[in-house]
Amino acid sequence: MTFHLGRRAATLAFTLFLAVPSLAQAGSLPAPTGRVLLTIDGNIAHTNADGKAELDRAMLENIGMVEIETWTPFTEGSSVWRGVRLRDVMELVGGKGGSIRAGALDLYAIDIPMSDILQHDPFIALERDGRKLRVRDKGPAWILYPFADNPGLSEERIVGRCVWQLATITFE
Length: 172
Prior knowledge:
This protein has 172 residues and is of the alpha+beta class. The protein folds into two domains: 27 residues, no CATH class; 141 residues, Sulfite Oxidase, Chain A, domain 2, CATH 3.90.420. It contains six helices and ten strands, in the order ααββαββαββαβββαβ. The longest helix has 18 residues.
């Protein structure tokens, strides 16, 4: 009888480990199985490569997709964007620091203060109006801010932090 209770407890603990993301993140991240969309390094606790976290689309989607209707200074009208919040990516990799350095495929890079991530809730868009972003659409990943929720975000210094063709994030 005691053996079965112990086995049930162990099974429950293992199930919770797999079901609760914050518990599963205590160690290394799984390796990507698809094409890597985003490489994260710097001051991070959870990795799956040599000192960095490589994330494919499925890994990003598994963080938890959000849907945000907003306009951008770069597109016409309002669109429905789907993606993941930067703060959720930060939690996944255990990122810490005062800022992140976001880099694009074309080597554009800019620092984004941690206060932006915590106060304005920028997100990494992966889709626009139900279509996956492609490189020619400023994708496959694009840091955006919820401009419709706070029109004050359209000032030049914030707009410059909207990194399209996002490829790297470094926690500094």
